[in-house]
Amino acid sequence: MTDLETLPDGAYTAVVDSIEDGLATVFFQQDGEEVGDDLLEATVLPEDGRHADAILSVTVDGEAVEWS
Length: 68
Known about the structure:
Order of helices and strands: EEEEE
Helix content: under 10%
Strand order of the largest sheet: 3-2-1-4-5
Largest sheet: 5 strands, antiparallel
Oligomer: single chain
């Protein structure tokens, strides 16, 4: 498992695998390759992305993370 905050700066595609008990399992891809995953509080995801199979864009810039 990769901690989201340890991913290098850049743009990623995030795929929500599942949400259970308020925790989301999310896989991160860059250039079509899986680069990590993380278990996150579901509340950090955009409201419309809080379901299994949601596909989100994520930008990591330092410690800031922007979801869309």
